[in-house]
Write a structure and sequence with these properties.
Mean pLDDT is 82; it is low at 180-200, 203-242 and 670-674. The protein is built from 14 helices and 24 strands. The chain has 674 residues and is of the alpha+beta class. The strands form four sheets. The protein has a seven-stranded antiparallel β-sheet with strand order 18-19-20-21-24-22-23. A six-stranded mixed β-sheet has the order 1-10-9-3-7-6, with no helix packed on it. Helices cover 25% and strands 25% of the residues. The chain has helices at 12-15, 167-174, 275-292, 294-302, 356-369, 408-422, 427-440, 457-465, 474-498, 514-528, 569-579, 603-606, 643-657, 663-667, and strands spanning 2-3, 9-11, 21-29, 38-44, 56-57, 69-76, 81-88, 98-104, 115-122, 128-134, 142-151, 154-164, 310-315, 330-336, 339-347, 373-378, 402-407, 502-504, 530-537, 543-549, 554-562, 588-593, 596-602, 621-631.
Length: 674
């Protein structure tokens, strides 16, 4: 990374081949730990002025509609705070010549109170390119750290380091922004003549008002303009870092007279009477929230090739096709830098299958009309290397259309991650996501994810029980495919609850044929009557094994815990039992000893005597295998007694009741740092 002094400039293109999109970081430290500043960005034309109020980005206007600028928020560092800004230089309008990056303080704070003031520019991959440090800050309440500016076809960075003692208002005024200071309107006799159309200087609402604080459970009220804030109160309230909004873990106490009262919901569900109503309502609910909550819309479309930009969504759009128009369930349009990305959406709910003929029609329409994608959305989960429906692609067409699939379980997972773990930019978005989640999880919505093991489940299960099934039975391959879908959905649900990514573990070689892998698993199912899978939680090395034994009707969940290096076997056994104080009493614990079966027992029996886990012959203790065994449902669906629910519940109980308590053993493993 190159360090440059105040006033110097450098070409970003010369520093990196991947500088079309950059991340600008402003950082500082504070001896008291309480110092803070608010970042702002201004896009300037050739005259050094903003074109309109939309060219000024700050805490109340954090992102550009075209995706060129987005304030990413503050990140704690080892020595202070860092505020990051994403700038897509390829999306910046051509008449913008300079991008000024600044910060401001309030309530008597000065930049001289902060230490280690610095600005860093990194490329798209996160590799730092250039840094500028400010060492002469004093009484200033606003500072221009630096600017990005055009020179021909390239972008350059200049280290500015210019301060203002007049705060953000003085800085903004220099760039053509009128700040409304006076709360009292002049009498009618003293009112000035209105300016001629087109000559008004842009103004920024709430520029000097108190920074809005997020409310966790309801949309924030409309922000007053600075002119409406009494002069004696402006700028005096303490300023705090804007935080992402997540839902509170404990619900507020209800004001209802009794538990039978229903909370008013934005998206009511009980009135839905048939599958058509469910499909129409679910499509409209999801697409409307995607358009209003950029974080969700971006997450659900990024994997399909959609850019980050302004999104609009539509339902029941008539499109010409043959003798009669066709009506896809939805249309998504994303605009960025004057270019459109578009997709048709076909929705199914309540376990209804997608129809190949219908999807084929939408693929043909999309190809003729220049759409980039067709997205199918249903309760089913897509498998690696397998299409949800078979469609034909006309290779003679120059315009190519991609076919993608999205499960309702994936939608629920992403909503959970945002509102419970990662947060969104304002309270209204959090509330909308919560209403969406309430809708998706309602019994009558029809949006419950994978719910049916398919028609092959019962005959395969019966064939295994009476030992009449043969190797090579195609129905067993279908059951293995359904099992993979179930495990993928279990990972989505568990990851959404934990706030961490959960993924299936594949032991097969990379680039191996998924269908060949399923055929081999089907032969194993026919031979020993077991379905098996492994999954891993992001951030841990533990692998959870899941085995459904169709002969015994049991589901086994287990995890291997290596013994920490250097500790005595008895100390290790006692520590494990102590960590599992809250685990189920019927948890099976087995010692892992090389070349032989180690001692085993239930946790209930081992608690008073952990030494019973030690090998009698003094063989080295490799670790322990922890297992829970539960009965599994027989029906193919997701009813209370169903197989899908029993597997899902078994994995959830095992993680929360067993694996979650093993953090200390995980930290003590060789090669890991606590």
């Amino acid at each position: 990374m190159q360090e440059i002094p105040k006033g110097a400039n450098v070409s970003l293109t010369a520093l990196s081949e991947d500088a079309g999109s950059v991340v600008v970081s402003l950082g500082w430290t504070s001896a008291s730990g309480a110092g803070d500043a608010d970042v702002s960005v201004m896009l300037l034309d050739g005259n050094g002025k903003i074109r309109s109020e939309n060219d000024f980005y700050f805490y109340n206007n954090p992102a550009a509609a075209d995706g060129s600028v987005q304030l990413l928020g503050k990140t704690p560092t080892d020595s202070g705070d860092e505020d990051r800004i994403s700038v897509d230089l390829t999306a910046v309008p051509e008449d913008v010549e300079r991008i000024v990056v600044a910060a401001s303080q309030y309530g008597g704070a000065r930049f001289g109170d902060l230490d280690d003031l610095r600005m860093t520019v990194a490329d798209r991959s996160g590799e730092p390119l250039v840094q500028f440090s400010i060492e002469d800050a004093g009484m200033e309440t606003a500072f221009i750290f630096g600017e990005l500016y055009r020179r021909g076809d390239e972008w350059k960075f200049r280290a500015v380091g210019q301060g203002y003692e007049t705060g953000l208002a003085g800085l903004a005024t220099d760039f053509g922004i009128d700040v409304l200071e006076d709360a009292d309107e002049p009498p009618a006799s003293e009112a000035a003549e209105p300016p001629a159309p087109g000559t008004e200087a842009p103004t920024v609402p709430a520029l000097l008002g108190d920074k809005p604080q997020p409310e966790p459970t309801a949309p924030a009220p409309a922000e007053p303009t600075a002119a409406a804030v009494p002069a004696q109160s402006r700028g005096r309230s303490p300023r705090t870092t804007r935080k992402k909004v997540t839902l509170p873990k404990v619900a507020k106490k209800s004001l209802a007279e009794n538990d039978t009262w229903r909370t008013a919901r934005l998206f009511p569900v009980p009135s839905l009477k048939n599958d058509k109503e469910r499909e129409v309502r679910a499509t409209s609910v999801l697409l409307s929230v995607m358009a209003q909550v950029p974080e969700l819309g971006r997450r659900l479309t990024a994997a399909f090739g959609a850019p980050a930009g302004r999104m609009q969504t539509f339902t029941e759009v008539p499109l010409p096709h043959g003798d009669a128009p066709k009506r896809p369930d939805g249309v998504i349009r994303v605009e960025r830098a004057g270019k459109l990305w578009t997709a048709l959406v076909e929705t199914k709910t309540n376990g209804n299958p997608l129809k190949a003929e219908q999807v084929q029609q939408y693929m043909d329409i999309a190809a003729r009309r220049g759409y980039e994608a067709v997205i199918t959305l249903s309760n089913d989960v897509a498998l690696e290397g397998a299409a949800m429906v078979d469609v034909k692609i006309d290779g003679r067409r120059k315009h190519k259309v991609s076919l993608w699939h999205l499960s309702w379980a994936e939608v629920t997972h992403q909503a959970q991650m945002l509102i419970h773990h990662e947060g969104v930019d304002n309270a209204a978005h959090a509330w909308l996501l919560q209403e969406l989640l309430e809708y998706l999880q309602h019994d009558n919505s029809g949006c419950h994810g994978f719910q049916n093991m398919g028609p092959a489940w019962v005959p395969v299960r019966n064939g295994i029980e009476d030992e009449t099934i043969s190797l090579g039975d195609a129905r067993a391959v279908d059951v293995v495919g359904s099992w993979e879908r179930l495990i993928r959905q279990v990972c989505l649900r568990l990851g959404g609850e934990l706030g961490q990514k959960a993924l299936p573990v594949q032991r097969a070689r990379r680039a191996s044929d998924p269908q060949a892998r399923r055929i081999a698993a089907a032969d194993k199912l026919c031979a020993d009557g077991r379905l098996s899978a492994e999954l891993r939680i992001d951030g841990t090395s533990s692998v959870i094994a899941v085995v459904a034994d169709l002969r015994t009707g049991k589901v086994r969940t287990s995890v291997d815990v290596p013994a920490p290096a250097g500790a005595s076997p008895l100390t290790t056994a006692k520590r494990l039992v102590r960590l599992l104080a809250e685990a189920p009493a019927d948890l099976h614990v087995q010692s892992l000893v090389e070349g032989q079966n180690g001692p085993r027992g239930t946790l209930e029996r081992l608690r008073p005597e952990p030494g019973d886990l030690l090998p009698r012959d003094g063989a080295p203790l490799m670790g322990f295998r922890l297992s829970l065994i539960k009965g599994m449902g027989n029906s193919r669906g997701n009813t209370e007694s169903g197989f899908i629910r029993s597997v899902d519940d078994a994995v959830g109980r095992f993680y929360l009741g067993v694996v979650a308590h093993l953090g200390a053993m995980e930290a003590a493993r060789p090669g890991r740092r606590g």
